[in-house]
Amino acid sequence: MSSSRRLSYAAHGAVEFPLGLALMAAPFLLGADPSGTVVAVALGVLVCGVALTSVGGPRGSAIPLSVHESYDQALALGGAGGAIALAIVGQLPVAVALLVISLALLALSSATRYSGR
């Protein structure tokens, strides 16, 4: 574990949940087509769901910390892939929003201390 990982697991969940909500709101604010809306809302629901597993701290979390870390990384990479797909089909504003939030999730994951301390 790196000493640069300063964000606690509880703070991680508190930051991750609004990112999921922003992801769900983005297609409606940007006037996306149905394809962009489905991708962004589905990924936002998954991000919010994973964020809710951090409620209660490491001992009270619904899933093991290593699993949460894996989900975070998978969602960030999946979001980047979704952004590429949306850019290809012409949903550029939603693709940019999806990419920015995916990069924020990746940065959040790399800054989080996934431990009970």
Description:
It is a single chain. With 117 residues, the chain is mostly helical. Helix content is 76%, strand content 0%. The chain has helices spanning 9-30, 34-52, 57-60, 65-88, 92-111. Helix 1 runs antiparallel to helix 2 and helix 4 (65-88) runs antiparallel to helix 5. The relative contact order is 0.21. The model has no long low-confidence stretch (mean pLDDT 87).
Q: How many DSSP H or I helices?
A: 5
Shape: elongated
Radius of gyration: 14 Å
Question: Between the first and last Cα atoms, what is the distance in angstroms?
Answer: 12 Å
Number of strands: 0
Task: Set down the secondary structure blueprint.
Layout: H1 9-30, H2 34-52, H3 57-60, H4 65-88, H5 92-111
Helix pairs in contact: 1-2, 1-5, 2-4, 4-5
Descriptive tags:
mainly alpha, 117 residues
What's this model, at a glance?
Helix content is 76%, strand content 0%.
